[in-house]
Every structure is written in structure tokens, then in C-alpha cells.
């Protein structure tokens, strides 16, 4: 750890707030996109493109329409398992922590926004966008977790991490509630289910703002963007 980083006191409330707000942000992607809306919507548009036997074909390989989303999940996890250990080493030993965090956060956010354009016949594009979003999330969360030893002393890390969890549940739950209400009252406001699903997918990305601290690689909060909910603590100096 550099002398510049050591010179900055830990347990700064502003930095901890920015760190927990990242959890508020990306948990919304997990609840709204992955857990609730993307699976059913992607299955429906894949079904519309399937043949009489219920198959779509990727480079000649048959894929059952109701298994397509599960394949997308599996493929994204396989990519994470392959690349995240390498990024973990970069998070611990490189000086590009902030830049890489922001790069993957923005990349995943762009892929999520693009999901608004998913319509019938675009199921392959939808799967590709999800792969980018999910892998980018996993990559960004590696760098996000790597900040914990820098912003909190060892005796405070459990409480700071718990605060991140709490903010994640609150942020993810709030956006999901809004989107579910929109879906429930869609007919009264003149919207069909497909449009509500697309709006809900894109709503997992909203305002983004940097929470710049005094370290060479400050923390960053991206509002309403995340794909999973894990805190793999990097308790390394």
C-alpha cells in the first residue's frame, strides 16, 4: 500500500457512504433484471422465434426456448470464473483500481440501457447484452470489494460491509417495488407488458455520479446498477 494511501485516514464517513451507495446502485440490477424481468421476457421473445419444436439455433446448435436464459446465466458465470481471478490480482496490485472499476461499471450500464431495445427477433442480441452486463458487474465488484481495507479499519470492516448489504437490499428492493407497481397498473396507464418489461430492464441504470475521495484511486458510486449480491472481502494490506 502506497504512502499516499496510508496518509489518508480510514473510517471517513464520506468515503464509506460512497462505498455503500455502490451497493445500493448495483443491487437494483440483480433484483429487477436478473431475478424478475429478464428471464420471463427473454423466454417469451425466444419462444416467438422458435420453430415448431420449440428450438432456436445458435450456429446450428439447437437450444430450447425455455432453456435459453439458463444458458445465458451459465455462460456468464463461466466467463466470470475464468477472468475474475485475473482481475482480482489487478485489484490488489495495480494502480488502476478506480479506472477499471469505472470502466466495467460503465460498460455494464451501457449494456443494460441497451436492453430497452430488445424486441421479438432480438433474442441473440439480448443474450449477448446480458453476458456483457453480468461479466462487467462481476469485474466491477472485484474492484469495489478491494476498496474495503482502504476505507475501513479492521475493527470496522464488518459493520461497513453490513451497511453495504443493507443499502443493497434497500436500493434493489425499492426499484423492484416501483417496477412491480408499474407492471401491476400497466393497463390503467395504457402500457402493455412487453413495454413495461423493457422499461424495467433499462431502469436498472439511472443517475451515475463519482464519489471522489482523497486517495489516488477514489471510490465511485454508479446509481441503480448491479447484477449480483456478494461481498468477497479482500482483507489484504
Describe this structure as you would to a colleague.
There is one protein chain. This protein has 237 residues and is mostly helical. The protein has a single domain (12-222), classed as Up-down Bundle (Growth Hormone, Chain: A). The chain is 64% helix and 5% strand. It contains eight helices and four strands; from the N terminus they run ααββααααααββ. A hairpin with a 2-residue loop joins β1 (55-58) and β2. α2 packs parallel to α7.
Fold topology:
Layout: H1 3-6, H2 13-49, E1 55-58, E2 61-64, H3 68-93, H4 97-114, H5 123-146, H6 148-151, H7 157-184, H8 193-202, E3 208-209, E4 221-222
Antiparallel strand pairs: 1-2, 3-4
Helix content: 55-70%
Category by helix and strand content: mainly alpha
CATH architecture: Up-down Bundle
Query: Could you spell the SSE succession in H and E letters?
Result: HHEEHHHHHHEE
End-to-end Cα distance: 6 Å
CATH topology: the name is Growth Hormone, Chain: A
Amino acid at each position: 500500500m502506497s504512502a499516499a494511501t496510508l496518509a489518508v485516514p480510514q473510517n471517513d464517513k464520506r468515503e464509506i457512504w460512497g462505498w455503500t451507495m455502490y451497493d445500493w446502485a448495483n443491487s437494483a440490477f440483480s433484483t429487477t433484471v436478473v431475478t424478475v424481468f429478464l428471464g420471463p421476457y427473454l423466454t417469451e421473445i425466444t419462444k416467438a422465434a422458435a420453430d415448431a419444436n420449440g428450438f432456436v439455433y445458435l450456429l446450428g446448435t439447437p437450444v430450447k426456448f425455455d432453456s435459453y436464459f439458463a444458458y445465458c446465466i451459465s455462460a456468464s458465470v463461466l466467463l466470470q470464473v475464468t477472468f475474475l481471478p485475473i482481475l482480482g490480482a489487478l485489484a490488489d496490485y495495480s494502480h488502476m483500481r478506480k479506472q477499471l472499476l469505472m470502466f466495467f461499471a460503465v460498460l455494464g450500464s451501457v449494456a443494460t440501457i441497451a436492453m430497452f431495445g430488445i424486441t421479438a427477433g432480438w433474442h441473440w442480441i439480448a443474450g449477448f447484452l446480458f453476458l456483457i452486463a453480468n461479466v462487467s458487474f462481476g469485474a466491477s465488484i472485484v474492484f469495489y470489494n478491494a476498496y474495503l481495507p482502504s476505507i475501513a479499519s479492521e475493527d470496522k470492516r464488518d459493520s461497513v460491509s453490513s451497511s453495504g448489504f443493507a443499502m443493497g437490499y434497500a436500493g434493489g428492493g425499492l426499484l423492484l417495488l416501483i417496477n412491480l407497481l408499474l407492471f401491476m397498473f400497466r393497463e390503467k396507464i395504457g402500457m402493455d407488458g412487453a413495454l413495461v418489461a423493457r422499461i424495467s430492464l433499462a431502469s436498472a441504470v439511472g443517475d451515475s455520479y463519482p464519489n471522489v475521495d482523497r486517495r489516488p484511486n477514489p471510490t465511485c458510486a454508479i446509481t441503480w446498477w448491479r447484477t449480483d449480491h456478494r461481498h468477497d472481502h479482500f482483507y489484504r494490506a
